[in-house]
Amino acid sequence: MTRMATQRPYAICSNCIMDTSDSNITFDARGWCDYCNNFHANILPHWHPDEASEREIMAVADRIRREGKGRDHDCIIGISGGVDSSYVTYLAKEKLGLRPLIFHVDAGWNSQQAVNNIEKLVDGLGLDLHTEVIDWHEMRDLQLAFFRAQVPHVDSPQDHAFFAALYNFAAGHGFRYTITGANYSTECVREPLEWHYHASDLRQLRDIHRQFGTIPLKTFPTADIFTYKLYYRFVKGVRVVKPLNYFPYHKEAAMQELVDRFGWQKYAHKHYESRFTRFYEGYWLPTKFGYDKRRAHFSSLVLTGQLTRAEALERIARPAYDAETIAQDFEYIATKLGLTVAQLEEIKAGPNRTYRDYRNAMGLIELGTKVLRALGVQRAIIR
Fold first, then answer.
1. 65: domain CATH number?
2. CB count, 10 Å around CB of 370?
3. When you count CB atoms within 10 A of the terminal residue's CB, does the N or C end of the chain come out lower?
């Protein structure tokens, strides 16, 4: 039985499929949610992936190439094997003429699909790959701590490792430009923080590990939000570039182009290139907390014209993946974490907590978000 996080009377947006599983969602007189109104008021007027924006990103690429002369690589790209990072890698090399270093973080949960996709892109485009392998004993201990803390965001250790390792490497090796697959086309509706809290909140990560961890984190990569958004940006000069916002980007067409050109392998849903993330997003979150991230993912596609609302409703009504695979993943995750199936089931049956139950830097993060919104840098709702 799914345990919903709120006692509000159920309501669903009449334009997308976000609903009151986001306890802070609001609706206007038309029944449109605040995500839809924010998209039309704050994102769409400033987002025009047309010929003019293509010329704009080409000018940025020219600058990256000029500043990168004499170096083996003029930029760095973090890649997971998913569609966004794969497609932006393809664009960076083939359309923007850049010489990226491809950076991958192996946190111990890669699917074979992800590994194959990275290899096919690197080989097909003639790129250099650097892989950073996280110490598994530390990774496992930190992830177990988050499970025992009973918070929804049990993927924070993996996400933190991804961005901290990338930005620490970029800043430490003099990279001026980090290319990312972040985009409005598939991410204009962001998951609420109660579903997916900031993985960059190092204060929370350390507090949960202090309470529930068992071994010291000696090599696990860390970087708080201010290190990579302020210090690395303004002191180290590391700039983040998001090319997918400058080109027409349609998820299904992009995946098919990757399949046709590189033999890239499709996967079921956003982020399912990681076996852990598939289990966490497709089963753990919906059944333990009542949060289904597909609502945000499908709503983004509805707002950007890649799905109809009817199609999104039909998809969300189906389980994210089949019961047999869920059972296999449950046993695999438990075993890899050093638990029995019964022990993981006991954790699942425990009392749910939120990020508010542990030390956090939310006050400072909210202040930073307000500043970024005022500057027009942050347009999507994050709350």
1. 3.40.50.620
2. 11
3. N
